[in-house]
Design brief:
This protein has 351 residues and is mainly β. 3% of the residues lie in helices and 39% in strands. The protein has two helices and 27 strands. The longest helix is centred in the N-terminal third of the chain and has 6 residues, at 60-65.
């Protein structure tokens, strides 16, 4: 079942709609056509109590002012681009520098601050909403008119799926992700340092002091970034390891171990307190694990304060700074080609 309701009006006068998606197994998703924001994700815990596991806000003005990218769609390029510049087919392009001298998450506005065209849909097993946006040639410095489609859907088995599609009339770098901060005990319930995490990755892309990739790919073995067996997020977060110290926790791209199937398992998180389990499957080659090191939200939902580590992100995507790193998988979308990407967030409980 899908219901639509008014959520507010932007500073530019656009009326914003909230779509509420109900799943047969108790899951509920709330989606805004502003920023393609997933405002809430309600799932049952081990006791059958329904908890909202997504950090967020209760009002539109807070999303408009937000600087933490709470649950927004990220584009045209997720993550960082060094020096806010890249060269494509011999031509240099200059982007807005919005994190020091570098470019982060699409720039000053990005896809999380625009109004999307929305169309809800449902069938016997699925409820969803399709959102579309055209990023004009030159927007945030990027070349080409980019047509983007995001489909959010929930299934009767409590899976939340994110499907991206995009085409462009000029070559352009594209890297899309969904930036939900999760707390499997429920938003506002404290930190996530006790959550037990598995990341299905044998390697990661090391960062420098600017949190940008050095261009290398390194093994996780023997480092605090080895989550191949379950580890509490907070178990090694104060390590003196240089990678963890520079990020003040975890803010790293992991190279997902590729599976034979179209979707590879990327991560599994279990909360011992609530019993909620989240499994992530993706077609993307990488996943940014962010442990919410710099979270500082004074008034989230129900007035809750979100401090450092109040939530974690599992951002499935291509690698950071790929336009400047020829050894990384290419993120260049060319005319006649179509970007297609899928990630599934599967929820369950354990006793």
């Amino acid at each position: 079942m899908i219901a639509a309701s008014a959520f507010g009006r932007t500073g530019g006068g656009d009326d914003i709609t909230r779509f509420t998606l109900h799943g047969a197994a108790g899951m509920q998703l709330e989606v805004l056509d502003y920023g393609a924001i997933v405002q809430s994700i309600h799932v049952p815990d081990r006791h059958g109590r329904v908890v909202d596991v997504a950090l967020g806000y209760d009002d539109l003005a807070s999303y408009e002012q937000d600087r933490c990218y709470l649950v927004a769609a990220i584009g045209r390029y997720a993550n960082r681009i060094r020096g806010a510049t890249f060269t494509l087919d011999g031509k240099p392009y200059h982007l807005p520098a919005n994190v020091g001298p570098h470019h982060l998450h699409g720039g000053l506005r990005g896809f999380g601050k625009v109004v999307w065209r929305a169309r809800p849909f449902e069938d016997a097993d699925t409820a969803g909403v399709m959102l579309e946006y055209t990023s004009k040639d030159g927007e945030e410095g990027y070349p080409g008119n980019l047509d983007v489609q995001i489909t959010y859907s929930i299934s009767s088995s409590n899976a939340f799926s994110v499907d991206f599609r995009a085409t462009s009339d000029r070559p352009t770098p594209v890297n899309l992700t969904q930036h939900t901060y999760y707390n499997l005990s429920g938003e506002g319930s404290g930190d996530v340092l006790g959550h037990e995490l598995v990341i299905h990755a044998d390697s990661f892309t090391p960062i420098d002091a600017s949190l940008l990739p050095t261009g290398a790919v390194a093994a996780v073995e023997g480092t605090p970034l080895d989550f191949r067996v379950p580890q509490a997020i907070g178990a090694r977060i104060r390590s003196n390891d240089e990678q963890v110290r520079m990020a003040r926790g975890y803010d790293h791209n992991f190279v997902v171990n590729r599976a034979a199937a179209s979707l590879s398992p990327a991560a599994r998180v279990a909360d011992p307190a609530s019993g909620v389990v989240l499994e992530v499957f993706t077609s993307e080659p990488g996943m940014q694990f962010y442990s919410g090191n710099s979270l500082d939200v004074l008034a989230g939902k129900r007035g809750n304060r979100y401090g450092p580590h109040a939530g974690f992100c599992l951002e499935t995507q291509h690698f950071p700074d790929s336009p400047n790193q020829p050894a990384f998988p290419s993120t260049i979308l060319r005319p006649g080609d179509e970007l297609r990407s899928r990630t599934e967030f599967r929820f369950s409980t354990k006793a």
